[in-house]
Amino acid sequence: MADRWPRRANDPPMSPAPPAPSMTQRPSDTDLVRRVRDADTTALSQLYQRFVRPCYSLAYRICADHGLAEEVVQEVFLTL
Fold it and tell me: Are 36 and 44 a contacting pair, CB within 8 Å?
């Protein structure tokens, strides 16, 4: 029934096509780490965007110094 054209007024509404999987699913953390090991800079950027705030928050709570917390976060991501 959904393949008829033109649609009639009493036809049930057509549901939209589901989005492509790549648009709805973000890569897992494990997948990103694997890609970083393979020198994928895009994966490193995605990991950074995902974890920079929680890493900074933790580092700041431990050292209570903004500058030192920034250095710690930088070192963490440089070691990946």
Answer: yes
